[in-house]
Amino acid sequence: MGYEFYYIEAHLACFFLLGIILFKIIKGVNKDLSTVYLGNIVFVTMLYFIAEIFWALVDSGIINNTKPLLYLSNIFTYLLISVDAYLWFILSETLQKGKLVENDIARLLISIPVWISAILCISAYRTGLVFYVDENNVLVGGNLYLILIVVPFGYLFAASAKAFYRALDKDRYAERGMYFMIGVFPFMPVILGVMQAMYWRIPFLCYGIVAAVFYAYITQTENLISLDPLTQLNNRKQMFRYLAKKMREEEPGMSLFILLIDIDHFRTVNEAYGHLEGDNALIRVSDAIKDACQGPRSRFFVSRYGGDEFVVVAEMSYRAEATWLADQIRNNVKRITENFGTNYDLSISVGIAQYDYETPISLQAFIARADSDLYKQKKIN
């Protein structure tokens, strides 16, 4: 029994494992852009495994290893692995809310290395620039073979470098797990890919790819669990986790604040216009809060606390900054009626509490202080 049996067996096993993930993605209720991209990656990877099986059948002689078939089997594998890496870069940019992939032209420009790689592969039969079959019917790398390696690795390392840079940023605590996943993703495929390059008839790479995809799928699923499904803000559980960490670690020169935000008379919106319009109002208010919290320092953690309440955890130098932020949020919410032409006015009340590291209190007591201030603001209004 030759190597081809074990090679094909490994790729079939990996194919069916990824098939399970693809089935879960297709059947899942979440259809956001990042999930769609991940599904595309899984699908292309499964095609890549089929191409590897085809290559093994040709290389081993089970299928007559004619010169055209040798070319064809290698074209599929190199082309699909480049497309896979490109899709991963697009997914990583989407998860990191990058501006590079927001329009079709930008995505087309980013895909140029894939098109170059594809043209070189398809034309190899005539040019032999990236690979050719010698007189002994053996595939040999051409003068430009390195391009076929640099293209997929380039996409992977570019995504990884950007993600690690962001993961090290203290102000991006909430997304750190996602950034770390993007950064680590290439390690297994690259390490096992190098091993397969050394022992090219041992199927190391397929296991590395499957491990990386499973890691990405699990991390993305966990990330979805940490988000409020309606507003896509961090949920209450994530807010508690983040706030507890900040209460333990004082940032020099900064003070820790909570802004507890409540929509005034929200029940009347639900009663008068229905729960669907109530949901739209919650989404618009959450967007207004996020817009107010945009800034170069990004020291704001925005979350939905429950119902019509939101929480912003903010690190600022002075209480006046927290008051200013509350005013910005109020103004953004007031503009909702004008911007969306709603038949009702929206307003909010904001309670502010500042944490004193010299006299620590519990997380619940800290939130209660903000709630007490919120109650006072409502009475004033």
TrEMBL record:
GO CC list: plasma membrane
Transmembrane residue ranges: 6-25, 37-57, 69-91, 112-132, 144-165, 177-194, 200-218
UniProt record, GO biological process: cell adhesion involved in single-species biofilm formation; negative regulation of bacterial-type flagellum-dependent cell motility
Keyword Heme: no
Domain named GGDEF: residues: 254-381
Pfam families with a match to the protein in the record: GGDEF
InterPro entries for this protein: Diguanylate_Cyclase, GGDEF_dom, Nucleotide_cyclase, Rev_trsase/Diguanyl_cyclase
Keywords: Membrane, Transmembrane, Transmembrane helix
Listed SMART domains: GGDEF (SM00267)
A molecular-function term among this protein's GO annotations: diguanylate cyclase activity
PROSITE patterns membership: GGDEF
Matches recorded under NCBIfam families: GGDEF (TIGR00254)
Listed name of the protein: Diguanylate cyclase (GGDEF) domain-containing protein
Taxonomic source organism: Butyrivibrio proteoclasticus
